[in-house]
Amino acid sequence: MNNRIALITGASRGLGKNAALKLAASGVDVILTYRSRKDEADAVVAEIETLGARAVALALDIGNSASFDAFAGQVRDALATTWQRERFDFLVNNAGIGVYGTIDQTSEAQFDELMNIHLKGPFFLTQKLLPLLADGGRILNVSTGLTRFALPGYGAYATMKGGIEVLTKYLAKELGPRGIAVNVLAPGAIETDFGGGRVRDNEELNAFVASQTALGRVGLPDDIGDVIAILLSDGARWVNAQRIEASGGMFL
């Protein structure tokens, strides 16, 4: 029996990498994307292979929608070459950047960059990959807890993620006839290098987040990778069009 295949954007580090390893450990093969650090992506591929799964790393700038046709062709080629298949099973729209700045400090260029990476990019990448996504598959979009609670400095970023949460519902509705379930995962504050590693490295911020979290600590990458693996498992097949927050209970 062939393993199922997940395509995870931005999986050379951070939450995407963790999700790729968790999925590989559960018997899912991975197509992972990276923006510029091929060495990091190749290291993740090697780690996945030690877990007994297969993996391919492809370059992708999620902020450049003009490149998506060519990228879809690379995915098609990888499926044929590595798996002798025409379809993959799971799409995880994870790639992103963090830009910190209050609304009065946010430039139009920063706004446009966030929109291209976090909203326009996932919208049109998903569109281009739909012919390659298997019927009965899954799409999981990554959002943020910041769409439910507001922390000054993340207004533009959270605005784009709010759009992703609405998009998730429309994708679920339109792809339902193909048996494709679509959900959105909203992580809370996680200790990674995202956004310059503020949550991980700023002791004051880390302590504040922990104090506002019911479980009393800041999230770790494993906390999110495990949830992604669960949401793509057979046991979650009837979960559809839902926003699932994984924050340990922030700001209750």
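[next item in queue]
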Amino acid sequence: MASFHPVGMKEFAVTKIVIDPGHGGKDPGTIGSYTKEKDVALKVAMKVGEYVEKNIPDVEVIYTRKDDRFIDLKKRSEIANEHDADLFVSIHANSLPKSTSVQRKKAIKGSEVYVMGAQNTDRALDVAKRENSVILLEEDYEKNYDFDPQSAESYILFNLTQSAYQDNSLLLAALIDDQLTTRAGRKSYGVKQSSLYVMWSTAMPSVLVEIGYLSNPVEEKELNNTEVQSYIASGIYRAIKEYKEAFDAQN
């Protein structure tokens, strides 16, 4: 079990959570051999919300979307900020580039949890560029965003934000990672930092969960299994519950 030491008890007590199913509408996200990320993310996100609503009734659940619709990246964080949410959890599915060898695609599977940060180690920058590139699908994106999601230099601006929430974001991420490993039986690539716009703009502890790789044929099949989806959602819910209980115990 991950060690847990909450920071800033009162100001970070959990009464509202925003659950963000990644992508949607004209933005399919990553695509497996027969699966679109937007569909898997929505199914798992709705299950997470259902678990929270049923088992933690004093926590209000807000969704950025409940169906297959396109939501601007900036709007997702605005929803969280406008509702004065205490946590923001964005749910996605991962994928290796199309040019990756079949052998490597079969070898790479598992979950990873991201918090906002400028380290961008390993494939973290690739993930950030892919997730942030949703911006390019938006109308008038040049007017609404002051950076190019495909330019490495643009990510320098991310260095200066989210520091007030990073400790608690890391704590929630560690709990989710632990639950996905122990309860959902997922292979874990751990907690990582990346310059993801959807978290950079949120005024609360925020995490982005990559629940698995659609580029892996075995994992793609698993992520379409309703029982597996329930285990993953249950793991994320239990981490949220554990996070909340840690604050409740000290208030």
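[queue empty]
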